[in-house]
Please model this.
Amino acid sequence: MSEVRIYHSLLCLAVVLTTECLAGANLTALPEHFRPDPFGNIVEPDRTAGAAPATDVVLKTARAAYVSCHLVVTVAEGGNYDLELQPFPAASGIQAELYREWFHYLPSIKRYFPDALIPVRTPYRSQLPEPDNQIPKQTVQAFWLDVWVPRTADPGAYQTTATLHSGGKIVRLPIKLRVLAPIVPSEDAVAIDHNSYGTYWLADQYPALAKHLGEKFFTSDEFFGLIHSYHRIFYEHRGVFHQLGYGHAGKVGPEFAPRLEGSGKGKHVADWTMFDRHYGPLLDGSAFAATHRGRSPIPFVYLPINPEWPASFLWWGEPGYEREFVNVVSEMERHFREKGWTATRFELFFNHKKRYKGFPWDGDEVRFVRDYSYFKEYARLMKLAVPADSPVKFVFRADVSWTMERQFKELAGIINFWVCGGGEFGWYDYAPKLLKDRGDIVWIYGGTPPVTEPGSHVTTDVLRPWMWGIDGFVHWQTASPGDDPWFHSDGGGEALVYPGDRFGIEAPIPSIRLKIQRNAVQDITLLDSFLRTKKYERLKAEVARRFNDTALDEWRTPRPPLADRNPEDVSNADYEDAMPKNPKFTGIDAAAWQRVRTYALELAREAQ
Amino acid sequence: MTFKFALLLAATGLFAQQDNRSSALDRVAQVATVMIDGDTCRRIQTPRSAQYFLQTDARDPWRASDNFDVNDAAFIETKKTLMRLARLCPEACDVNLWMPVPSNPPRIQILIRNVHEMSQFWTWGDLHQQMPPEMRRVLDTGERVTVSRRPGMISVLAPVCDSVGDIVGLVEVVSQAGPDPRENVK
Model:
């Protein structure tokens, strides 16, 4: 929950810096939603009227929150520079963190966009063009400034200074910080989930570490530390991380499940070692002890259960399947209970699709109605395996699209965690209340806006679930930046973090989009806290108006005739045609979220 | 012992191991030809799914895969037999079912895969693919064919016949030296 006010330099009234500004060295700032490029412009998708660098910055924020902006170093003729950031008073607990912005080259459009954020220490000494980024004629290096304001900070005014030294010139940029009294609640108003698949990609994304550890990589402490670091980065950015641990034909990665032995009535857990090394620090929260948000167990985790684990599909439909399933799941419940892992929701979730030829039914995005019978059978087996009074939270999750409306009815009481295709879910205006009233968890899913879209687009995924009164949003893939995200980027549509290996960091590094998303989650969580004194509909109406000048009913799509057709006769093209084409949603400007933030701050000031 | 001699001995040992693996897989493939019911295999994919199978649509690239569907009973019966056959292998192996697709040029689909997610022929995610010459040979001649395309992997391809004696498909009995426990966990 924060606000950035930029006081524009009189010298820089245009989007492109003037020649005067470019002469020699300069240090300016931009609000978070205006991303700079390496030549002194704001990237094209973010350009709006009045977007320009500033020579004075005021950051405003509630407590227990980050506030951010870009610092922009210009060295027009190239050459060495130092950027130094003075710390805030130690007693305040306020911490400034600085990141160098990597400019990714997108060959498809021959443009550079900043996204990956490399942590740097201050003073940062380098030169332009930045040697490792290899951009000919680069005149600008941007830095992301994150300021963490703890809940213990005293409300009031603070100030620090960023100083640029280059070519004998010194430029000082005052950074004023106003801390408001309200505290952003620790529990997020919406869960923003970041999905991924397996762990095979870690060796590819961390080649230096993988080479160093050789064959021991996948059993090393470093490997488990790497997994935990992915959870940690998303947690610190007010998000959730999921890793699916099995394939479409039932192969389970060794660190995602206990090792089993035996068959039929003799099937049992033989070894928890790998599972506990993986999940222990996540489920007891110790993996997060060193974060600003503090120690907390992960809220959700996939179970390894699939049609081939723990029971062999060889026994499907026979007593042996039930015996193997119940034996092992009962042992899991007992293990989790004894460990005290009772804060996390353990998800029974089927990801397989019959098109991948492993099993005869779709677990994910069911299209054929007769496949529902399998879900009913697994619900029966779970009831046999898990004591009714177990403190361990098992949930049955289904990711739904084609037949979601029918599933809501026919699988009521069986599925209690719905992850719904975001477009179709908008057709069923009654669904949030129907599902929430019966205690179900409801998320929607979608992709990740690439860097070529305005920076605000990722905030739509934060806002929509809140507007709809549901619990969260899933980015279906967030850890796959492509083969060469640095010099041949595909736009990052499947990544919100990048591997730090290139920079000697054995952990993921964040992206600008992840930071913008985090700040939006803070804002919406603070807004949500005002529901104690404000009416939900009124808050939503004002947020919608400020975000993209919409009325509340524009956030829903009228039920199209398509919704009443047999889903088996419907194609993706039909869905595309039925989706809303409201330009207020397709053309959201970069500053959209800033207007919501301003509203949240107005309410925060009232609440002081 | 000279270095060259040691290398020769090691290579001989490796070839012997590979020969043993090939022989074991070949025996399983031989049994598979007897045990797999080709008539049932032909009933696995639904007629409706087959109608969509080769369709392409520029506006809907997933048209064929979204409509892919199987008859549960035929799929399960055959998959269970494949799983039992895999238990005859002395080491971890998969027995996959491949069925030709009526098309010109000829194509083939993997129709049932198994838990180790092994295959030397399947391109991950492909609904159907170009007919490999080794598979064409099995379908045309009924011979069993041993293939070592990928390092460490051996596949034995063997025909699957129906009740009138026609070859309607084939099995791939496949194992891998030092299988990767994380490959295709996605």
Observations:
- The first strand of chain B starts at residue 93 and ends at 101.
- Chain B has six helices and six strands.
- Chain B has one domain: 3-176.
- The radius of gyration of chain B is 18 Å.
